[in-house]
Amino acid sequence: MNAEDQIYQNYVNILKEELVPATGCTEPISVAYAAAKAREVLGVEPESCVIAASGNIIKNVKSVVVPNTNGLKGIEAAAAAGIVAGDASKKLEVLSGIEEQAKASIQGYIDGHPITVVPVENEIVFYIAVTVQKGNDEATVVIEHYHTNIVRVARNENVLYESVSDSDQGSELTDRGCLNVRDILDFANSVRLDDISEMIERQVACNTAVSEEGLTHDWGANIGKVLLRAYGNDVRTRARAVAAAGSDARMGGCEKPVVIVSGSGNQGMTASLPVIEYAKELRVSRDKLYRALVLSNLVTIYQKTGIGRLSAYCGVVSAGCGAGAGIAYLQGGEYEDIAHTIVNALAITSGIICDGAKPSCAAKIASAVDAGILGYHMYRNDQQFFGGDGIVTKGVDNTIHNVGILAKKGMRETDREIIDIMLKHTSKDAVAEK
């Protein structure tokens, strides 16, 4: 692939759009971003706040710790943090600069101001509308489809900004329709390192630091530590453990930034950390590692394009396949090796549900990475799943297409049931506390 080709530039742009830093789980951070922007538009600290959110947002914010809030969870905490101390100009790092005094005031704001969460029933899977009010003045900020995609800003009766796009990819993102496995591999082999090195270096540095935090301290269910203690220290176990440990820390509210993929820190860590661990074991060059990470990231993004940002289908399954592809590449794998690795892995783990961000995400990451590694070793041992085996179809791109349909359309009712179950438990927990 030539650097002058449009598809080459599209692939570079896709990576630039996707591999961005975020402090905290991205759904609560998106709520905090909208709230910080709404306060900015209002011009003063509001007396009240209403958050209208789709079920998937409620699901993904409910059980995860919001960073820099002294351990608070939930939409109310995310909105309050954005209002009290958020910096909207930092987007997904909106809560990164909060000082200790401001942390303490977030709970005070929650206690002293009404914050109302309203579930929204519409066809938009990713939807957040934050309305803040003081006296007769109010401001509203609406985000749709992905985490920083503000589509409407209003103050009182005045619409200050409104997007004309209703695409679930957003009008500002590069069209992902150019993605396919063969071209992704061609790009990984031919990309000029100067075009991608800055973002890949940042991914390696940030995600490794969060993983080390998870392995060193007590976070979540400590899945990374459990894996190493229970299964030993071989590279396959380490690859699962480093990714799981990153999630342990992040779901527990770690304040260090992560470079995300497809809008998700867990996917960003799953797509990168196992590949980095294998690169250390194999002692490959920096060039080879970076190309493997380009491959893993783009394979993950490609799968998620058909699924959407949020669904009932666990996103780390896609990232585990990406990691498997990257690991295959590090070991000299070519197109057939990589294609079969992806198909085999999808046949193993497709169907793991997403029931929100929380400590068990780390265990799902471990399973997804294991499937990616197994998918590679199956093919190296002359074993594979064939077209007609369940959702597997002849051709890797066709199988990825099937998974997209399964996740986006077939699992809609599953998603509704998951959200219903989670909201019922929330109501029961609230009654029990009273």
Automatic annotation (TrEMBL):
The lineage of its organism: Bacteria, Bacillati, Bacillota, Bacilli, Bacillales. InterPro entries: Ser_deHydtase-like_asu (IPR005130), UPF0597 (IPR021144). This is UPF0597 protein ACFSUE_08750. Coiled coil: none annotated. It holds the Pfam family SDH_alpha. Residues 91-419 form the Serine dehydratase-like alpha subunit domain. Belongs to the UPF0597 family.
